[in-house]
UniProtKB/TrEMBL annotation:
Identification of the protein by name: cellulase
Gene3D superfamilies: 1.50.10.10
Organism: Gonium pectorale (Green alga)
Record EC number: 3.2.1.4
Catalysed reaction equations from the record: Endohydrolysis of (1->4)-beta-D-glucosidic linkages in cellulose, lichenin and cereal beta-D-glucans
One example GO MF annotation: cellulase activity
């Protein structure tokens, strides 16, 4: 929850004007605040933090609306004396900081008192606990609902958020706070070239680049790491590295990269990898600020990935629910109606029978995605392909939020010039639609 909320907060703050113009600002702030309220409650005690509510095995044994679940829901707590939980607490710091900054801004949910409460709690968690931890948290008895194997990425993400807060508030010690964020990144050792809650390095790089933490040389390092470790592997580059082919059956129609078994071999949430990297590509192009063949390549690759998930693929199969209510959405695309989601599968005390669509429409949920051989069955019983999660949706929603030089902004620019995406994507540096 914390990682999803902090990613949405980053997108909302960075592209506020686009959200306001589209009428979605208040919705974004409300959703992030909802998560922050929960995290604040998790930190009610100075020496304890609630890391997880509910037993994974018990939760899966109940099928019905969550509000009707009367079974035991144990609480898993991190204790300060145990010296673990760097990943969980750092993500909480990031989310509370992001929410606090959002609530300072004009809108329906502007609330300066709550903003200060979130920001103060985040700072206290960092200063008194999270910043010195060197171990991840593991739920007992293999009960983890989210895998987390590293903490340096989470701590760099949290430190970058505190840098952003210091700069936004004009704090006297902003330079030292941002230098600390840069120093923490210098300690990071990059692993797999993708982004998930288990691997937040790309998000941390984007926020560090956005804040300008550290020196000019540090910013150059952030940019180089984004290009070489992430974007060149997925979107290719203007020279010799080719973008992954989204029409190759062995990659399930979604991009994958050599050596990244968790992407290539499928499993829960395959589509989230591509959605997350589409966000990274769009955000990187925006923060780069230039209009080059390379940055256009990132944007065009991201557009292809988002469109693929929305049904622009050989099977005309969308992997996002609730699109049927959009009047201009293409009618020949199959829209999933049976996500594995208890709330939408049951209505008025009755759950849909096997083979029947969910009685409640779940709007805008990104599904786990196709299997390795591109097979997909729109069934609640199909397993990971129809799973839904806020973790899946965070990167997808963040990608759609990107303004400035994001997809919607480019669409509007091309329409005004009477140009097409194909012209934009094939034009050279500073081509005819610049």
């Amino acid at each position: 929850m914390a990682s999803s909320a902090s990613l949405l907060a980053f997108s909302a703050l960075t592209w506020k004007d686009s959200l306001v113009a589209s009428g979605n600002w208040d919705l974004a702030v409300r959703n992030v605040r909802w998560a922050a309220d929960h995290l604040l409650a998790c930190a009610a005690k100075d020496d304890e933090f609630v890391a997880q509510v509910g037993d994974h095995f018990i939760e899966d044994s109940f099928w019905g609306p969550p509000e009707n679940q009367a079974t035991k829901r144990p609480v898993f707590v991190i204790k300060k004396s145990f010296r673990d939980g760097a990943d969980v607490l750092s993500q909480a710091v990031a989310a509370l900081t992001g929410a606090g900054l959002l609530l300072r801004l004009p809108g329906e949910y502007q609330d300066e008192d709550t903003s200060l409460e979130f920001l103060d709690k985040a700072q206290a968690l960092w200063d008194e606990w999270a910043s010195t931890l060197e171990s991840v948290w593991q739920a007992p008895e293999g009960n983890n609902t989210v895998v987390s194997r590293t903490h340096s990425d989470d701590k760099a993400w949290a430190a970058a958020w505190l840098c952003k807060k210091a700069k936004v508030l004009g704090s006297a010690g902003a330079s030292a706070v941002c230098d600390d964020a840069a120093d923490r990144w210098a300690q990071v050792r990059l692993g797999e070239g993708y982004m998930t809650t288990d691997n937040y390095h790309a998000a941390a790089l984007l926020l560090l680049l956005d804040t300008g933490a550290g020196s000019t040389a540090d910013s150059a390092t952030y940019t180089a790491s984004l290009r070489e470790h992430f974007l060149h592997r997925w979107a290719g580059n203007s020279d010799s590295v080719q973008a992954c082919d989204c029409d190759v059956p062995s990659s399930s129609g979604l991009c994958s990269i050599d050596g990244t078994y968790v992407v290539q071999d499928g499993g829960p949430g395959v589509s989230q990898f591509t959605a997350n990297m589409a966000f990274v590509a769009l955000a990187a192009a925006h923060l780069d600020g230039s209009d080059t063949k390379e940055t256009r390549g990132w944007q065009c690759w991201a557009r292809g990935q988002v469109n693929w998930l929305l049904g622009a693929n050989g099977a005309s199969q969308a992997y996002v629910t609730g699109l049927g209510g959009i009047s201009y959405f293409q009618s020949d695309v199959r829209i999933p109606t049976s996500p594995r989601h208890r709330g939408s599968a049951c209505k008025d005390g009755v759950c849909a029978a096997p083979g029947e669509p969910n009685p409640n429409t779940l709007p805008g949920a990104l599904l786990g995605g196709p299997e390795r051989v591109a097979a997909f069955e729109d069934s609640r019983d199909a397993g990971p392909p129809t799973f839904v999660s806020i973790e899946y949706n965070a990167g997808f929603a963040a990608a759609l939020m990107v303004g400035g030089r994001g997809l919607s902004a480019i669409e509007q620019m091309l329409a005004a010039k009477g140009a097409s995406w194909s012209v934009y994507c094939t034009a050279g540096e500073r081509g005819p639609v610049s």
